[in-house]
Amino acid sequence: VQLVESGGGTVQAGGSLRLSCAASGYTYSSYCMGWFRQFPGKEREGVAVIDADGRISYADSVKGRFTVSQDKAKNTLYLQMNDLKPEDTATYFCAAELPCGSRQSEQVPFFDYRGQGTQVTVS
Q1: In terms of Cα–Cα distance, which of 40, 33, 43 is closest to 4?
Q2: For residue 27, is pLDDT > 80?
C-alpha cells in the first residue's frame, strides 16, 4: 500500500488548506482511511477518519473546521482545513488500515500504513 500526501504549506491564521492523499497498491474493499498529525514535540493526534462503512469521526480540536472526504474513483482522500490556527501547525500524515471495520479518529495514528507526511505551518 502506498500513500502519498500533498497540499501542505504555510498559511496565515484564519486561512485554509486542502490536503490530498493518493492511495494505491491495495485491493481490499473494506478499509479505513484517515489523517493524523504529529506536533513539533512529537505528540501525535488522530484528526479524522472515514471507516469502512463511510462513517466519519473527527477530533474535537478540529470539529467544525476540518472536513474529510474521499473520492473512491480516484483512490484519493482529502482533508479540507478551514479557519486554521497556529496550534494546527504539524506534520500531517495520511493513514490506512485494511481490512477494517469501524474506527474512531484517535485510532488513526495506529493504522498499518502511512504516507511520508506533509508539513502544515500556520503563522
Answers
A1: 33
A2: no
